[in-house]
Amino acid sequence: MNHWHVKPTPEEVALTARDIIIDAAHHAIHTHGVFKLVLAGGTTPERVYSLLAKEICHWEKWQLYLGDERCLPIHHPQRNSQIIQRTLLDKIDFPKQNIHFIPAELGAIKAAKEYQQIINIALPFDLVIVGMGEDGHTASLFPNHQHNKSELVHAVFNAPKPPAERVSMSITALSQNRTLLRLITGANKKDSVAQWRKGKNLPIATITTFTNEMTLLDQSTLGIT
Q1: Cα separations (Å) of 208 from 15, 18, 27, 74, 91?
Q2: Distance (Å, rounded) from C-alpha 49 to C-alpha 12?
Q3: 28-47: per-residue pLDDT in tens?
Q4: What phi and psi values does residue 95 have, to the nearest 5 degrees?
Q5: What is the reported pTM?
Q6: Which residues lie below 8 Å from residue 106, measured CB to CB, with a gap of 6+?
Q7: Hey, which residues does 187 pair with through a beta bridge?
């Protein structure tokens, strides 16, 4: 069951998300000794990473993965990996061997093939974070794009927002999780949120969970001012 939680501000969405992630980490480490977390790009998750960077956690037991990446040079500031590096990893003592990011600098096809091998042995994830774009896309899964459903990782071309070439975990891979956490903030998302709530089959709506899913929104996404 999808539980919707509406908070007054994006900052309160981020604070709630931080608490959910820390609780999930404690539970996963207690039950099976590792916390496998899929991170997302975007402004909303950035706030969460900045908050996590202030926490004291058993980072050596965390394993980080990435839902999607842009095919840009490895140190390009618009890569999701670089955003996570700046907001979180540069501020904590995190083991490099526990970071499993997408080698998108290799190009979409080669990177997708390599990352699929990594994901195949990592599944299932303890927690998957996804955001949503104005058009209802999540990760780099865009409306009306077709992909091979047997793949765990897709090479993405012709993305409607630059860069056109990307790599994304598939719906199949993202759905293999114990907790799914959707983070959505901003008035520019309200039309897509309204369509989703009316039943439109947007990419954000197609990811599922084994156990628990939560959608955190701020009031502006519902048109509340």
Answers
A1: 23, 21, 20, 31, 32
A2: 14
A3: 999 999 999 999 998 889 99
A4: -65, 125
A5: 0.96
A6: 114
A7: none
Q: One-letter amino acid identity for 136? A: G
Domain boundaries, the chain: 2-222
CA–CA gap between residue 98 and residue 65 (Å, rounded) = 9
In CATH, what is the architecture of 2-222? 3-Layer(aba) Sandwich (3.40)
Number of Cβ atoms within 10 Å of the Cβ of 35: 26
Task: Report the number of secondary-structure helices (H) and strands (E) in the chain.
Answer: 7, 10
User: 178 phi and psi, to 5 degrees?
Assistant: -90, -30
In angstroms, the CA 66 to CA 182 distance is 15
Q: For residue 73, with 0-12 CB atoms within 10 Å meaning exposed, 13-18 middle and 19 or more buried, which class applies?
A: exposed
Residue 21 CB contacts under 8 Å (≥ 6 apart), including other chains:
37, 48, 52, 127, 129, 181
> What percent of the chain is predicted at pLDDT more than 70?
99
- Contact predicate 85/171, CB 8 Å: no
Element (H, E) at 179: strand 177-184
**Residue pLDDT, tens place only, 61-113:** 999 999 999 999 999 999 999 999 999 999 999 999 999 999 999 999 999 99
Closest CA to 128 of 71, 206, 55: 206
CB atoms within 10 A of CB 66: 24
CA distances from 30 to 3, 127, 131, 179 (A): 25, 15, 27, 16
For residue 104, which of 191, 55, 166 has the smallest C-alpha distance? Answer: 166
Kindly state the greatest CA–CA separation across the chain: 45
